[in-house]
């Protein structure tokens, strides 16, 4: 393999170590960071995500409290819990694992979370802050990607950046963070014409599509940095990203693997946002 591997697992561990030291200082001053994690229903993937998040909290010393609600929970019941958590002074961050089971409305819950405790940075208020570049909470997945670029010595300023995907949680905020660092950013989606040609212009290519092996070697410029946000299953049920890793790794200069790339970084950034919220409380 020609490309250098950007090891998300190792970078996330380094971020967690920094956060653990910050948490210790906060606790010494009488503030224990607290994260409330709400899980509605029994979706197996959501259960794994929640378990990973609470485990990571424990590792850095954040108090994580899980609220597991049955799939038939009503919107009123869920919003009452959010209101209760908004009011609790020992809870700095509130995370509701999405997507919610039908007929619950993701948007209603996001809107109900106090923006000061919205550690996923999904609320309209926090999205607005990200847009104008004045933010407290970074959107976790794109922030994780930026942290990987920084810690891998990748300069964004002046570079051609192509993001494939325009979702509210990944593609759009990703483009915005790259723009804030003076990248020249193009956002692609399912209606983009000549996608491969656009991608081949990228010095930094971020794939957030949700399709296994979607980014093939002919879509990548020699020496590009390739970031794979995708989390998919291949034909044999194995976890894989959006990038045809083996072929693209022969062309790229740096590349993230799946698993062990963006995934661990997303969780590390969630912890970072929770610590940021706790620091504000401590002040
Ligand atoms: P999403 O909401 O489904 O968005 C996918 C995007 O890809 C859409 O903007 C869509 O375009 C675009 N797309 C689909 N087919 C395309 C095509 N043929 N050509 C070009 N663009 C195409 O997904 P998401 O929530 O952003 O997530 C993307 C992937 O990242 C998923 O695999 C998800 O599991 C993963 N993910 C990983 C993490 C992590 O921590 N590693 C976190 C979040 C998400 P349109 O808008 O035109 O439909």
What does this structure look like?
The chain has helices at 8-28, 44-60, 75-87, 106-112, 124-132, 140-151, 171-180, 195-200, 245-248, 262-282; strands at 4-5, 34-40, 63-69, 93-96, 160-164, 184-188, 204-207, 225-228, 232-233, 239-240, 254-255. The protein is α/β, with parallel strands linked by helices and 283 residues long. The strands form three sheets. It has a six-stranded parallel beta sheet. Strand 9 (232-233) and strand 10 form a beta hairpin. The model has no long low-confidence stretch (mean pLDDT 97).
Name the features.
283 residues; alpha/beta; Rossmann fold; 2 domains; 3-stranded parallel sheet; 11 strands; globular; binds NADP nicotinamide-adenine-dinucleotide phosphate
What is this structure's SSE topology?
Layout: E1 4-5, H1 8-28, E2 34-40, H2 44-60, E3 63-69, H3 75-87, E4 93-96, H4 106-112, H5 124-132, H6 140-151, E5 160-164, H7 171-180, E6 184-188, H8 195-200, E7 204-207, E8 225-228, E9 232-233, E10 239-240, H9 245-248, E11 254-255, H10 262-282
Parallel strand pairs: 1-11, 2-3, 2-4, 5-6, 5-7, 7-8, 8-11
Antiparallel strand pairs: 9-10
Helix pairs in contact: 1-10, 2-10, 6-7, 6-10
> What is the straight-line distance between the termini?
49 Å
Beta-strand residue fraction: 15-25%
CATH topology of the largest domain: Rossmann fold
Mean pLDDT value: 97
CATH H level of the largest domain: which superfamily?
NAD(P)-binding Rossmann-like Domain
Small ligands present? NADP nicotinamide-adenine-dinucleotide phosphate
User: What is the number of strand segments?
Assistant: 11
CATH C-level category of the largest domain: Alpha Beta
- Secondary structure category: alpha/beta
